[in-house]
Amino acid sequence: MAAKQDPEALAAARPLLTDLYQVTMALGYWRAGRAHDPAEFELFFRQCPFGGSFALAAGLRDCVRFLRAFRLRDAGTPWPARRSPSLRPGGSPPRCSRPSPHGPLSPPPDVQFLASVLPPDTDPAFFQHLRALDSSGVTVRALPEGSLAFPGVPLLQVSGPLLLVQLLETPLLCLVSYASLVATNAARLRLIAGPEKRLLDLGLRRAQGPDGGLTASTYSYLGGFDGSSNVLAGQLRGVPVVGTLAHSFVTSFSGTEVPPDPMLAPAAGQGPRVDLTTCVEAWLERVCAHLGLGVQDPHPGERAAFVAYALAFPRAFQGLLDTYSVRRSGLPNFLAVALALGELGYQAVGVRLDSGDLLQQAQEIRGLFRTTAAQFQMPWLESVPIAVSNNIDEEELARLAQEGSEVNVIGIGTSMVTCPRQPSLGCVYKLVSVGGQPRMKLTEDPDKQTLPGSKAAFRLLGSDGSLLLDVLQLAEEPPPQAGQELRIWPRGARESCLVRPAQVEPLLHLWVQQGQLCKPLPSLAESRAFAQLSLSRLSPAHRRLEQPALYQVALSEKLQALVHRLRAGASL
Q1: DSSP class of residue 242?
Q2: Please, what CATH class does the domain formed by 7-74+110-190+422-568 belong to?
Q3: Given 221, 297, 374, 410, which residue has the most CB atoms within 10 angstroms?
Q4: How many whole angstroms separate alpha carbon 489 and alpha carbon 141?
């Protein structure tokens, strides 16, 4: 696979985005003559997040970008060893490191840095091996992004030379775990909100760093959000970007400002230009009379801010209503500007609330929009969208989405990007075969035991297209057939059972073979549409967010027999 760079890969494609023990194991494999042994790992999770019954698979596109760019950087000449205060197996105690010859902001090349943290007597031939590494020997099978995923079913299967696929563990976990967690969180929020409400990601400023922010904005969109405030996510990933104005814009105006050009042409482009400021002041008197307010009640600075924004965005004017007082200032100022624009053929696109009882205020504002629209014969005003934000979590979202709510757009920040109900998906990356021989982790904890061998995964469906269960089997077994009876072992059950699927779907697709991309990755928008289709196939009992029915994952008879045999052999 050619080491191609693209703008999206610049942050992620760093081979040393890994744990040191991956490197120490790599040295151990190399020293044992096992670097090229064919091996296979599986990446999966053990429990569904957030107490639900499903997850959405995500992060594959980032994994592919990482693999396409995977190559350890090398200066080409030996670099004087310097010791790092990090943990170093078998080395002498850390010494003070000399200043980097690459400058304080430029890290040393990858291979030279690894030489500085491994024992000083490490064979130079090992570093020669690292210099030659790329992903040309790696094969990846995976669930398509947006697929429903369940415990124990691989999100990724990664095969290739043992040393190399071991090195890939940490970066692949890093790229898949958070992306899938965020996509699942977004899917839950979409299920709560229903299909009609617009959901916007506003979490960049609350995210765990820039990479977390970009990942959250990307995969919240895949999970069902409609857009993001994150401009970089729009530039790099094609996420629709949204945004208007903040309270700082409003409070920056005092009301004494004079716009350098207050004139605005009609929306149709014909007719004389109008002084918008003068027009707004005339409308303010009429609006205040209608609302039973004095013209001195609305804040003049807020009105000046709205006028300035309307002059900049006459076709996309939106008011932020709660800087001072929604009822006595924000609403009348917005209406005055919106109606002035309406006279010129423009229509305001919305208002936003960011404090107080959002549901109640939205009801009151919608009622005033309706009476004002009737009073001034501006029927479009009735349906101006109402957007809300302000630390919205699942419980508040359910309240805002209830039947009869007048809220149209919901911005979610902290609860989207930080996933407060469960901050980690807990994905693992486990060895399942080496040299064609199955490997199994037993451990003292049965929940941490792994399933051995190279496997295939299938989804069994009923005659109505409903999901019955997922079945894991050894790759060498013939796939299940629609209409044929199949004996399976549900995970955790003591006995087998029979199932007769009406349809069978293979789950793991071949995306990368020997370092080459086998087929184009779906676009983010296509994966988003697939995620919504996948969720629609879940039964109501499985889609339920609280105390859902557990979705069944089962083993084939042959895989169950292999597990039993390896357990028995380990106990001898």
Answers
A1: -
A2: alpha beta
A3: 221
A4: 24
